[in-house]
Amino acid sequence: MKPDVIKDWYTVQRERLHLPPANLEAEDPAPSAKNSLSRPAPRAFTTGEEPRKQEDPSRAEGKLEPRREPSATTPVPPTPKPAAHPFSQWLSGRLSGADAAKGQTFLLMGVDSRKGEAARSDTIVLATLPPNGQDLYLMSIPRDTRANVPGHGWTKINHAMSWGGLPLMKKTVENLLNIQIDHTATVDFEGFRQVVDTLGGLDLAAEKDMRYYDPTDGTNIRLKQGQPLSTGQLALDYARFRADAMADTGRMQRQQRVIRAMIQKGSEPSNWPKLVKMLDIMGEHVKTDVPPRDWMALVMRYSGTREDGIKTLSLNGQNRISKADHLWYFYVDEAELRKMSVQLQALKRGNA
């Protein structure tokens, strides 16, 4: 084929593909390349221009580049912490780390305080908190339990409160069970009513009809089966009732249900602000060696505790009349006391 024919053919093809004209006079293509189109020469870049980046062939084929790990010098932004509850921010005084790391035993008492009379213990409960745990163990002590009250001899354990107040009651319980009590708290009937009212009642209902009237102190309990304990007075009537075949045993079971319900209701985050209002109640109706803010820190520590996380322990014994003084006592034999002492000490150490 003549050179001018080849030139015309190449010109037509380049114009069809919108390619710039080629200088065939300067080219001397190899014989094998005379029938193919020539690619334009690479474009030269002038000063100030940036060359285009060539596309990675692996991307063109739909392949992904391997993920590059950040270098050691690349700063990693810190993960933001969730905002604390407003009440948690206010609560600056908490139990120390040492207190939280060790188990503790609390003596909790409900007392009947009347004008002109010494306070009488109506409810006696031991609460054991294992170290760094969410479980809570409650054990009720019948108020008719026969015990050796220091300085007074063998008698009903609740007499210790009337004779020597909280210090003597604490010492009596420690001697009975051979344990160490770390903290004490007493609440009178009016304080109990106000605490439950502040919480908005309890998520608990009477399991049966309860009727009892005592004209000597004005006690008038009238509860129907299924009736919610929506007020402090209803909760107090429920906790004090014992006019049935179960007597004190049934009453202790109800008292533990009430304590469990109060803990669960008070530990709900929506009720934390109400704990501030309870400071006024604690000042007049609650006597304790634990600072109010530490009590609230304990409530927050047990926030979200399931119902099965609050466990109960039973002190086994027999009710009978003493031949010596003809009074009604709850007798606990030495073997049962030793068994309970070992269990309480193990729970407090955290190796039960």
From TrEMBL:
Tree of life domain: Bacteria
Residues annotated as domain Cell envelope-related transcriptional attenuator: 120-265
Comp. bias (Basic and acidic residues): 49-70
Pfam families: LytR_cpsA_psr
Chain positions covered by the region annotation Disordered: 19-89
Entry similarity comment: Belongs to the LytR/CpsA/Psr (LCP) family.
Protein name as annotated: Cell envelope-related transcriptional attenuator domain-containing protein
